Structures are given as structure tokens and as C-alpha cells.
């Protein structure tokens, strides 16, 4: 897990602890590797070990939920990664046992023609958390410096403007009391295994392989 920007406030003990646990759900994390090794030594977590660990993590999420409600905290969690990187799966597990009144998911579709004429950050602002809420962004404004940049979906001027404005935008989030955390996910190992799977194809954009090649340049 990485801090969003250089000026984000230090997290509460509750959320910092949770972030480490959520990070462990990624196969590349050190804790995740240890769990896999301890499970059966074959690089695959057993169902029993997975369910036991998931239950412990979900208990922590319920505690975080109650703390957030009590403190009227505003928490923003941003998941970034290529297509098929596993963001949606982690978000699904996070929201399984918690209240939708506290936890909300923001997975914005391709911008409409009207939204394309707005200030770039405008369509994200309306999804930011209010007091007592936790919002999980399945991708965010970082699309501009990631997918849009490498795939040529934005101009050089639009990219440069984003890089100039983004630090000030994030600073305004901090000053409004929003606590933010960002997680990175990788698709390099997952995508090849999902190509033959017909059940995964609705979740895999046509340009997913092209994105993978562009990111690796």
C-alpha cells in the first residue's frame, strides 16, 4: 500500500493496521507469500486457510466500520491497477460483511460526452466520503497519469495539466479531513490465466493485452 501524494495525514492505528491486512490479500505481498507457503507448500492457499484468514480480516473491517461511524471519520481507499489485476475481487471481499450505509464503492464508467467537457476532477468529487463513510474507489483520477497516458487517451497538455493540479487537489482532500490510502495491484501474472476463461471475458476490456504491453515499456 502506498500513500497518496506526499502530504497525506498519518493514519489512525485502526486504518493503518487494516491496510496491512488488505495488502496481504495481494499475492505479491510478503505476508501473502508466507500464508501461501504455510498453507500447503504448493503456491496455492487452501480453502480452509483462506476462509480463516478472510474471517479475521472481516472482523477487523467491522471494527473499522464502527470506529468510522463513532468518529465521523471520512476515509477514502483507492485501488489502482491494470485490467484483471484483482481490484474488484479484493473490493468484493471487503464489502461482504459490512454495512453499505458506511462502505460505498465508486467504480466510474467511461466518461460521458458531458463529463468530458467538465473539469477533470469534477466527476470524482461527488463520490468522496462524508463523515462516517468509507468509499472504495475502483480506479480514480490516477487514470489520467496511467491508462489514459500510456494508451494515448489524453493529450500531452491534458497530462501536464493533471500533474500540475493533482497535488493541490489532494492537499484540499487532506484539509477537508479526508483520510486517504491507495493500493496497487498487478495483472501481469493474472491476465494470461484469464484469457481462456469465458466467465472472465465480460470483465476484461478488449484492449487489456494492449494495456499490459504499453505499461511494461
Explain this structure to me?
Helix content is 47%, strand content 12%. With 217 residues, it is of the alpha/beta class. It has a single domain (13-110, 118-215), classed as P-loop containing nucleotide triphosphate hydrolases (Rossmann fold, 3-Layer(aba) Sandwich). Helix 1 (13-24) runs antiparallel to helix 3 (47-71).
List its traits:
217 residues; alpha/beta; Rossmann fold; four-stranded parallel beta sheet; 10 helices; 4 strands; globular; disordered N terminus
**Beta content:** 5-15%
Q: Class in CATH?
A: Alpha Beta
CATH second-level architecture: 3-Layer(aba) Sandwich
Count of folded domains? 1
Report the principal-axis shape: globular
Number of strands: 4
Main sheet: which strands, in order across? 2-3-1-4
Identify the CATH homologous superfamily: P-loop containing nucleotide triphosphate hydrolases
Q: Give average pLDDT, whole number.
A: 76
Largest sheet: 4 strands, parallel
Secondary structure elements and pairings:
Layout: H1 13-24, H2 30-40, H3 47-71, E1 74-81, H4 87-95, E2 103-106, H5 113-116, H6 122-125, E3 133-138, H7 147-151, H8 156-175, E4 178-185, H9 190-194, H10 208-215
Helix pairs in contact: 1-3
